[in-house]
Queue: 4 jobs
Job 1
Amino acid sequence: MAKRDEIECWLTDMDGVLVHENQPLPGAAQLLQQWRDQGKPFLVLTNNSIFTPRDLSARLKASGLDVPEEFLWTSALATADFLASQSPGGSAFVIGEAGITTALHEAGFVMTDTSPEYVVVGETRNYSFEAITRAIRLILAGARFIVTNPDATGPSAEGPLPATGAVAALISKATGKEPYVVGKPNPMMFRSAMNKIGAHSENTGMIGDRMDTDIVAGIEAGLHTILVLTGISDQAEIDRYPFRPDEILGGVIDLVDAEPFTVGIDDDLMPEEPLV
């Protein structure tokens, strides 16, 4: 397993690591700039499949973080990448928003409700009883069941919202069929992200805030794992699991290289050796 100073490529979760409630977390902007300055390939990952990378880039920019769309990797992109490898030019009935439908279109898939190869369920705030019923009938007729991510709930200002995993459970109960889930904690999402940036597991680091998705998937993918405590995890949460990350940090600010330390503005007063 690589040590931190041997890491050449980085994957990082977004919510709870770089941003919290649309506000950048301390050190996030500096760390992203540091990776750019050092020429280290990186991707920002999210299990959210609602938004396209362009949408997410704009939302992050409004939060104060400059993350161009080519540096974003969503569960929708990972799902489209997986399905394109399984069935090039295939067909799917999709429950979801622009994030998953755009990704599948760009991967060469056809959207149809007539004998599709796949039923794909992603995140949406507008679940339709008719669409869920159609998905159930198509799966019972032989369509393969794919889910972008397993998250049962999502956050909102008013409290938790039912998310992809909850709707997938409803469909599973009605069909007796379990879906193949592409997003975290499936390490396939990390592997597809690494393929995108030409990274290898032995020199790639993963930063996350969740033991049950980010860290376990990072371990299974063979990555150097870093848990930050700016999201949902604390020591009690860490102690619940039989595995451990390689590092536990207060936040991404702890990954930002310290600036050279200087005193005053008069060169004559500067020490000959750098202060440490």
Job 2
Amino acid sequence: MDPTLKNRTIAALRAQIPVLPRGLRTGAKYVIDHPSDFGLDSIRETAKKAGVSTYTLVRLAERLGFGGYDGMREPFRQALVSAAVVAERPAWVDGLRDGGALGAVQAEAAMNEMAIVQRSLERQNLDQMSRVVDMLMEAPSVYLTAVRASYSLAYFLHYVGRMALPSLQLIPRHMNSAIDELHTAEAGDVMIAITFTPYSRETIEACAFAQSKGMKLIMISDSEIVSPEFSADETLLVSVLSTYHFGCYAGAMALIETLIAMLVARGGDEAQARISSYEELRNKSQVYWSATKKR
């Protein structure tokens, strides 16, 4: 079998998704987001996970030129790799499992976090990361937006990243909307948007508005297809799989810290000087607590 068929199938799905009917669009997004599960599961299981009918999946396969569902799934089966990326379970995890029900919960959460950090970092291509760093360093203005739980990631990226990238602005500010803040943005500016499923309406609208102004868009997300209404210039993918109800952001934070490290390195002496000036300011204003020495 052609070893490139899986990647060509995903590329075809991405290209067609904006014009697909709603049901086919939902099925296509599931295949793009979960290629390993798609290659492993039966058609009924895939339909259940994707929230579509088995007939929809058959129609999707035919739309792509396959003779049937199995024909579309086969290249994914051939390319299937295990999602269990932590090669060896540490002994301390087994110790947690011996601690009863709550210990088992802690062990599962710990293994999940280690796995998604490794998997998220493995997915980052050096060429793409270099393009992203160049886009950010060369842009006149860089806007950064996120809401709700994702806002904590954006806040950290802005708080630390602005020392290497002084053009970085966190929006919205002062109870405005992100679109208000983008009103004066211009073509050539860049926006970074952070959002994970379920995607926030405010962030999606801000992305579409930014692109309508000719801005470049960088997404940090768990899917390359966040919305069929727009396509990001660059999407940095991370895993947010969790052992509990909400997404786990350990992988996203690892990516953001890697990006900051690359921005600091790219910023050279100027970035180091800004970092030093911030540290000097904080020391002078005594922002860090220290114990009073006994006399």
Job 3
Amino acid sequence: MEFTEHDWIRFGDAVIDYEIKRSTRRHKTMEISAGPSGVRVAVPAITPSEEVAAFVRNKAHWILAHTAAPRASPAPCEIPSSVPYLGRQVNVVVGNGGVADVDVRFRPWELQVFLPLETDEANAAGRVRSTVAEWYWLRACEHVTTSVDRWWPDLGRNSMPEIHIGDQRKRWGSCAADGRLRFNWRLVMLAPRLLDYVVVHELAHLTERNHGPAFWALVETILPDVAERKRALRSVEGTLPM
């Protein structure tokens, strides 16, 4: 039996996204491959995620050498005029002065970004984006945890699992073989009802590991409008700005 997860590490200025293939048939060794299609790590099913991350970090130089693509010059990084938050568009207002480092403040419904006076204009957009992404990540930690706490009495099994908020590129969430739950920080861009759907979906996997009829029947007992929420989530996939 195999399970697939996605995770990432930061190595210097680079972020390495990787796919984890967990297999009950693999008992000891970990193997890694890297190329234009991405980074994949094959591990035994019960290998701790921290051990996988350490393995990837140890291979980081090799990974970057095999995945780097030559570029003539980077495209300009523009600051978006608005971004979605909890299903609503939020205006982004950027100003200078009064702060030692880039600072983000939320005033419904406006995202205020303050830059130090000495900020290099050429690097401003990148700094704004990274700081706004960090702000989203912190909000995702709050909202996802609240949602898990809400639905845990209906779907939880044994003790509360570890919850990780990551930067998955192709998944909203995943449930590992050991019960660990991983969620994409971009969930906090969505309407709360869609965030709840993803949380319920992954909690249901603690009972039903596949997407068979029993799984969807379980989800539907918690969210009778699951089909509509699923369609709504698909309609926004690939439309988020970050």
Job 4
Amino acid sequence: MDIHKISHDVSQLADCAMVPGLGFLPVNAFVLHAQEPVVVDTGLSTPDKHFLDDLAMVIDPADVRWVWITHPDRDHTGGVRALLDAAPNARLITTFGGVGILGCEWEVPLDRVYLLNPGQAIEVGDRTIRAFRPPLFDSPVTTGFVDESTGAIFTSDCFGSPVPTAELATCADVRDAGDVREGQLLWATMDSPWVANVDEARYRRTIEPLRSPEPSAIFCTHLPPVLAHTDTMFVTISQAPSAPSFAMPDQRALEELLATFAPGVPS
């Protein structure tokens, strides 16, 4: 995992996952350095990950006051249980549905949960953060938020894109990753396939509250940070309903992929 101090307010914990045939998908967590520090998502859930050790390079986990899980997919929740254990004063921000999904895997401590719905806000010491439902999402319990003190938005999967290499996936500025427009539209139709069936005018109306006023930055779990020209990102996702639908690989494609792998060495 690569650690980047993006600004006085935000640190990025940058990881990625290889997606065969598509490249590498960024998998970011963030720390919002508010007076009451907020950790946004907690990384991948594979056994080789050590989120708490990585987080300790940014902040003492015991100082964390809020853990915001944008939605309870396994690429967002890898370190959540360990972090709650290490941060006894932290509370878990999610939704009623989010608690239900998390509770299928472990006993969520309800006395440490803070339920926050889209449109609601919470004070984190020196600033207010306000929840919203991103225009694109793959889970009905997804919430992002806007930091009202800086105008930055944290958007979960929305705006995501695979990129060609792991180095690009873990960079600190999307401008270093090249042109991501095509990848963003592919990701939109892959991660939110329902977008092909929506009324385009109504869909675009869900974008405008985030687009105006233009945010100072976009922090997405699956894209390097967007620190300038954020409006181009909104232009791209506004085109998602008319983008070609993503065709999922089938068994034949899997067999063709497996045929390219080097044979294993007998033990």
